[in-house]
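Intended use. Records like the one below are meant for learning the mapping from a protein sequence to its folded structure. Do not use them to infer anything beyond what is encoded.
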Amino acid sequence: MNHRTVTPSSFSAFVVILAVMFLAGCSSPAQQKRVTDLLAPVSMPVNAIENQAPDTPPDVAKGSQIYAVKCQPCHGDTGQGDGPRATMIKAQGGQVAKLVNSTLSQNATPAAWFDVVTNGRIDQLMPGFTQSLGPQDRWDVLSYIWAMGVSTPTLLATQQAYIDTCQACHGSAGLGDGPQLGAAKVVSFADAKWMARTSLSSMSAAMIKGAAHAQVTLDEPARLAMASLVRTFGYRYSTPSIASGSVITGDGIIHLQAVNQTPDGPKVTGLPVILHTYDTTGEVLSRTVLLDANGVATFTALPVDPNLFYQATVTYSGARFYAPPAQFSGTLELSGTLPVYEVTTDPSVISVSEYHYFVQAVGEGSVNVIEFYIFENSSAKAYIDKPALDGTLRSVKVSLPADATNLKFDGPGLGERFSLGEDGQTIYDSDAVPPGQRASTIAMIYDLPYHNSKSIARTMSYPVKNWDVFLPDNVMRITSMTDKGLQPIQSTSIRLYSPDRPDLKAGADAAFTMTGQPRSVGVPGEDNIAIAFGLVALLLAIAGGVFMVARIRKWQGIEVDLAKERAALIHEISELDGRYAAGEIKEAEYQASRQEMKDDLREIWE
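Structure written out for the chain above:
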């Protein structure tokens, strides 16, 4: 596709001259002019803005780097018009646009945005960028500005509304190829020319026009949020706060094949796949591409730092699915699978294969608790619950004790992976539970008040096949359960208690009473948080559940080299599970390799 390139003219040269005058502290009558719409471009004879469109989808990650150099000094870190040069511009009679202002962002077309970046606004002391930025650079920086104007949680919440309201006709990737389209023709939201000439407000208005949109019941704020989501089909979205602080270039390539694991499930194509990049501190970068006609997502120009881990996610049929984590090590190109499933909302397919209640003394008057759940799914489909009223994804649920404080999770917490129910005590996982015996895990960590004794009754939402309790040795005890002896964990030992009946029905309580006086301080050399997360990681490795690289951390009080070695072993176990699930290795080889890795992991944790 060929597009007209904006060429320099006598007028654009005048822009440069005015910019130099401004930086030198000069002023002119034009600098005193103010306009209401800062995105209304000055009429330029060399531009026909209806023909402007990007050659390739704009990239938010690339645009963030351009924004930091070219735009942040005036428009500020978050597009609020409060950069370090804004005061000088206002003193000279100019205005600095608040790029995330809803009136401006909703009513301006991308072509109008592009024209302003290309030619500048002389009356507002903004130079054009034809000399320093190519056309694709200008589109990239605009995509970053659009991303700043809408939050990632809003986009994620709006995805379900798109699936319910729009996908049947417009298709999962907005290509106008939905199954209920029939003979009608609709626009492809990924069409660059359509995107360039269409504002968010015009998209919102179109959603309630015509018989085809009679079923749309969204109010105006919801339609504008939908329009922002629709616009992302035309560019490579990344969370701005992540993209702006990331190294974005490299020689790495990752190919991922989406595979529907449900028998007779349809081929999965056209969906956006998000590639998350993690180091030991958390997520540092994300990229988004669409699955092609063969169901393949290809990510290029990735950093190949061996300290980075990659994991891709895709939302299919209202459920989020993960690829096994990947890491560049001695190669520049990786290939893998991204398993997806058809979904069920029937909670009877879910049970808890293992439930562990682990207590450690952390101080006078309180104890620290870890609840560790391993879920299994007996169906051939992934389990999800109905989404929340705001569209938040939900799957399995657990409850939080009313007197619990300082809630933490092993990895992403509330507002990320988990959400709180309307009652304030039910916690929902947002990750779908795939089929299998050890399909998903939740590790919930919190403090409880404790004085000499405490009765616990944890109500189970699903049937439980086996449960137990771990307590600090020689500190606390449970008289109503069988003492199974000491279990070595890291630098300490904990005592295991088992109930007379290890199974529970849905709605039943895991009930027991703890007695004993906890230590007021920890044993010298111990680190309670390190022990807690060490237990979680060990149980995750043994359980073979889904292990997200975002959970890899440097345990407090543990040598860095050992932490890296443990993280690498856990990564290998997770990768092995993914290969086995994809049918790439045989059962005997899988079991032998996994046992060897588990033994190695135990050795370096004890």
